[in-house]
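Q: I have two molecules that I believe assemble together. Could you output C-alpha cells for the complex as a whole instead of separate predictions?
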Amino acid sequence: MELIRTLSQLVNCLRSSCIRRRVAVVCPNDPHTEYVIIRSLREEIAEYLLVVDADHKEMAYSLRSASPDFVRIYEAPTPDDAAALAVELVRTGEADILMKGLINTDNLLRAVLKKDTGLLPPGGVLSHVAVAQIPLYHKLLLFSDAAVIPRPTLEQYRAMITCDVALCRVLGNEQPRVALIHCTEKVNEKFPHTLSYVQLKDDALRGRFGQVLVDGPMDAKTACDKHSGEIKGLTSPVVGNADVLIFPNIESGNTFYKTLSLFGDANMAGMLTGTIAPVVVPSRSDSGNSKFYSLALACMAGKLTQESL
Amino acid sequence: MELIRTLSQLVNCLRSSCIRRRVAVVCPNDPHTEYVIIRSLREEIAEYLLVVDADHKEMAYSLRSASPDFVRIYEAPTPDDAAALAVELVRTGEADILMKGLINTDNLLRAVLKKDTGLLPPGGVLSHVAVAQIPLYHKLLLFSDAAVIPRPTLEQYRAMITCDVALCRVLGNEQPRVALIHCTEKVNEKFPHTLSYVQLKDDALRGRFGQVLVDGPMDAKTACDKHSGEIKGLTSPVVGNADVLIFPNIESGNTFYKTLSLFGDANMAGMLTGTIAPVVVPSRSDSGNSKFYSLALACMAGKLTQESL
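A: Yes, here they are, computed for all two components at once.
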C-alpha cells in the first residue's frame, strides 16, 4: 500500500476500504464524544455500540435515532458497570475498539487492566502512541510515551517499539526509522536509558523488530532535521528522517506532545497500545479534530492486537 | 522600563542604552563565532577580548583589523590555557561575559567550574536558561533547564527560579508567572518533583522569590494556553500566561527547546546562569540568529550575577 503522509489521507484510506470498525463507547454523554461519533458516522468509517449508565441515556438514544442502522445501545447501572460491559464487548469480539466518553480515565483503565476480564494479555505492556501531523515535517511522526509509562524499562521500550513499528506498517511504511531520544548523542551511565538504547539497537540488528532502522541516543531536533545532523557530522539514516521517536520518560514525551500541538500547529492523534484492541482515551484539552483523528487512527489500527505482533 | 516582548526589541534596547558589554571569547576560530562577533560589533552592543591559542590566531587578527577600537587579542599556548585566561579576565572584572568559540564544551566548563579560579561562587548552582520567541505565543517565554541539570533537587529548583525570575525583571517583567511543569495537575509521590513543586509554591508565598506567581504542577500546554486551562477548570493566573517554565528533568527541558526551535519556528537564545557573569555556550545546531540572540541576552543580563540575586 501507499505510504500515508497525513491524517486526512488516513481517513480517506479508511473510507475507500469500506470497512466500518465497531466501536464500543463508555458513557457517550458529552459534546466531544458526540462530535467524534457524528463525524465518523458521516465519514462512514465506524459503527457504534454505545454503553450508557442509567442516569445518562439521552445522547445515546438521540444518536441512534439519527443513525439507527449503525448505532446500538447497551444499558448498565453505573459508569463502572458501563466500562466493564464495553470491555466485555471487545473481549467477545463484538467490538473492535474501545473509546472513552464521559468517565474518569482511571475508572476506565481499571476495567481495561483488570486481570482475567480486562484487555491486557498476560505479560502485555500498556503504552501510548501519538501520531503527529506537523506543518514543518515531511511525513507523519509517531512517538511514545506521552501518557502512560513514567520511566520505561528495557522490556517496556521493546514493547513500545514493537507496537509503534507495527502501526507504521499499517500506515504503509515498510521500514520505519526509529530514533531513541536523549539530550545528546552520548551513551552515559548517568542516564540509564542510554544504556537501554544500546541494547535496543542491538535488538534491532538481530531482527527483533523486523525490517526497521533504530538509532540513538539523539535529541528530538537531530532526529527530525537533516541539517542538525550534518552539523554534528552524523550520517545515520535515522537522523533527520525519523518515523518514530521513543522518549526516555513521560515528562519528555508529554512535553513533545503538548509543544507540538500548541506551538507546532500540529494535528495529533493518539491511542493506547498493548491491549488486545485499540483503546481511545482523548485528552480533555485535545481539539475536536484531534479527538476525531484519534478514533480514525484506532480504526486504522483495527485488529492490530498484541497477539498479532 | 517597558516589557521586552521580542528578541529584536531586546537588541534595540541594548543599542539604545549605548553600553557595550565586554565579551571574552575562548578560541574564536569558527564561522559561527565570527558571525556573532561581526554582527554584535555592527549593532554596537559589545566589544571583544579574543583569547586565542597558538595555532589559531588568524580570525582574531582579521577581526581586530576590521574593528581595532573594539577588539583586543590575548594569546595562550593551548585551548585549555585560553579558557583559563578568559575566565580570569571575567574574574578580574576586565570582561562582563564569557563566550565559547571553537573549544570543546566540557573543556570550557572545566575552567568555569574550577574551584577558587572559576566563575561559580561557593554554593552556586550552574544552570541554563533559554528564552524563546515563538510565533504562536504572545510574549517571550523563559525556561530551565534544557542543558545542564539532569534531575533538579529542591535547592537547584530554587536557584533556577531565582535566576529566571531575575532575568524576567531585567526584561521589564516585574511580576513573572512561573509554571512548574509535569504531565498533569496531580501531586503524586510517584513523581518526586511534584512534591518539590508543593514546597516551591510555598516558598513563593513566603516571598522567597520576590514579587512572583508560582503554580503547578501543570503541563506545558496548560501553562501557555488559556483554553486548555478553561477546559480543565483551572483558574490560576499562571495558567495560559506563563513567563517561565521550570521542567522536571533535562530530557523534557531539552525536548521543549528542540521542538520549539524546529517545529515551533521559534527564535531561541540561551545562556548559563549561577556564575558570577553570564556564560554563552551556543549549541552546534543552533541557527546563526539564535547564536547572536544568545550573546544579546547575555549582554542584557550583563552584571546579573549570583551575588546580586
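A: One point stands out. The longest strand of chain B covers residues 46-53.
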